[in-house]
Amino acid sequence: MDIIEDLKISYKIYGNQDGQSIVFLHGWGQNIKMMEPLANPFRNKYNLVIIDLPGFGDSDEPKTAWSLNDYIILLNTFFEKHNIKNPVIVGHSFGGKLALLYASIYDVNKLIVLASPFKKEISKLSFKTRILKALKKVKALKKFENFAKRHIGSDDYRNASPIMREVLTRHINTDITEQVRKIKCPTLIIWGTNDEAVSYDRALELEKLIPNSGLVTYEGCSHYAYLERLHQTIKVLESFLNSEE
User: Fold this and answer.
1) In this structure, are residues 117 and 97 in contact, taking their beta carbons and an 8 Å threshold?
2) Secondary structure (3-state) at 204
3) Which of these, 60, 28, 25, 35, lies nearest to 128 by C-alpha position?
4) Which domain CATH number covers 194?
5) Contact by Cβ (8 Å): 191, 205
């Protein structure tokens, strides 16, 4: 547990301490556990870093309604404290939006974004409801359903404080298109065509915005495509991480 910006920050660092650092950033209403299935296969070769973002998991929530830039400042402070330089960053959804913004400002070795919004997304359903509906509809996700119920939309989401509701509103309403254009590092984009939280059209836009990027499409998969096809995602990441620019 670290104290950064007067907040307790929960994190996990494990794997090969001499390897390239890979940072995993979870989505809204989630925590470290939701990224572990994707991170664990890389523990022998890479230095793995998973963070409970402020307001989620075992980390404190911000004392005021943070902007995305506030999260970026915290991440950079955390990286400096742990001597994490030029990392690979993997981000899902909200975590992916932070990864995009971070990579537009600081040096990043490679970037992997999983269904990551960068424009305003409008939905009549709550985030948790959309995710759990997706889990129930997709047979391949049945084994993750109980796991996800424990780690998505926990009590602290259902009973979200006014501060975290304001953070969510800021996140949803913040367009980072112009910042995304500045990203230079090799970028892998993974998206499901049936994503009801962030439209697949956003994936096509993102690929055009980032010059050195490539899109991997999962036909028929939801906002949680990386879990629906976990084995395939691991193989795709292995190929991307081992490739030259």
Assistant:
1) yes
2) helix
3) 28
4) 3.40.50.1820
5) no
